[in-house]
Amino acid sequence: MKLGFIGCGNMASAIIGGILENNMVKKEDILASVKSESSAKRVQETLGISCSTDNLAVAKQADYLFLAVKPQFCAQVAAQIKDVLPKNQVIISIIAGKNLSWLKEQLGKEKKIIRTMPNTPALVGEGITGVCPDSLVSQDEIQQVLALLRSCGPFSYTNLRAHETGRNLVCRLLLENNNLQTKRQTRHAEPQKQNGTVPRHANRST
Asked: Can you give the pTM of this predicted structure?
């Protein structure tokens, strides 16, 4: 299985680091492309993977292709790579603000695309990621993508409906994230309660 990353900023680097740490894919089976030679050199040194400025090379070779560029560059990158994407490739977008219908329009209606929306705590394995696959992606492919995402740390995900707007999607993620944080706080408080300790703010008079 070959993985490709077009764009390799903080979020993509966190995903790659987790994949490597959990031995899911070998370093030689991960390719990345970035905007500049200096960025490519940094990625090579920090992650030990092949990294260049050649988006086409990455797009052609990947079985699972992660799009991790900044939103303002997405249309340009999509136009550049859409004609070289392999037929059975699964495309995973972690680009903010680009919904599934936009991605299908830019890359091709026949492409297998999964839109994901990780939030910032996912960088340290404590986040929540919205996952929205199109109807062409098989259950096995969805499970493979989820396994890759989980490798960078435990997280909760919500399977989003393709027609959800960006605003509704953000609201749902905020709700899920608040629920997740509440559960973590409850788990953290249990040992304190058992040990007879209480948080300092609980002793304040009202």
From this structure: 0.77
